[in-house]
Amino acid sequence: MTGLLSAAPAGAVETHAEAVEVHDLTVAYRDTPVLWDVDLKVPPGVLMAVVGPNGAGKTTLIKAILGLLKPVSGQVLVEGKPYSARNQSVAYVPQRGTVDWDFPTTALDVVMMGTYGKLGWFRRPGKAERAIATDALARVGMGAFAARQISQLSGGQQQRVFLARALAQDAPVYLMDEPFQGVDAVTEKAIVEILRELRSRGRTVLVVHHDLHTVPEYFDWVTLLNVRVIASGPIADVFTPENLRRTYGTTIRQ
């Protein structure tokens, strides 16, 4: 873990390379563009929401950054370099509904998966990795459930386990696809505190989010997306009624 980094204005930490850069990114399903000519720069050390209407391409953007979807055109850079899953520079928390929760494994085993990338192909996780995973579970309030099968956990508990897996990876960049979906108020508050802790350590966190009312409370940066990037930057500059109208095509009450 790095120490506390001093923050630049609007939540960004001063550095030479952006945490994430997307250049001229276009992604299409069959002949229909889902993202069109997207340009995006995300500074290190910001907690950023990605918001937009249904079908705006929010999840597609996350998957394209991760290389899970092949773009028609464009380039993605993470910390100034083309992204590769092998370098473990990005931790990913997928939508809970996309995970096979019936897979027979415990909460601790799921979290330990976050340490595999740093072990390489031929090393098995040992005491050090188990300690990292145990600590990550404790940080999300799930220490008492380490031996519980993931299928026996509630939706909010499952979400915390996947967040713990990302914490165990200890990456500089975190991508989270609707981590608040289907969780109770207590879990949502706990997740927000963890996101803020990551930001305080200089990590960069991108969160696909749908609740516009909590954007100014939870985040310091926002990207408004509707196939194209409508606007992106600090909340005070970007999260305005006019930009929301351009994004959603109607008047949005803040």
Structure description:
The protein is of the alpha/beta class and 254 residues long. The protein has nine helices and ten strands. The protein has helices at 58-66, 107-112, 116-119, 127-139, 155-169, 185-200, 215-218, 235-238, 241-248, and strands at residues 20-29, 32-42, 47-51, 73-78, 81-82, 90-93, 173-177, 204-208, 221-226, 228-234. It has a six-stranded mixed beta sheet, sandwiched between helices. Strand 4 and strand 5 form a beta hairpin. Helix 4 packs across helix 5 (155-169). The longest helix has 16 residues, at 185-200. The termini are far apart. The model is unreliable at 1-15 (pLDDT under 50).
The proportion of strand residues reads 15-25%
Number of helical segments?
A: 9
Label the overall shape: globular
* Oligomer classification: single chain
User: Runs with pLDDT <50, length 5+?
Assistant: 1-15
Mean pLDDT across the residues is 86
Structural class: alpha/beta
- Spatial order of the strands in the main sheet? 6-7-8-3-9-10
Number of strands: 10
N-to-C series of helices and strands: EEEHEEEHHHHEHEHEEHH
Rg calc: 18 Å
- Percent range of helical residues: 25-40%
Largest sheet: 6 strands, mixed
Q: Separation of termini?
A: 37 Å
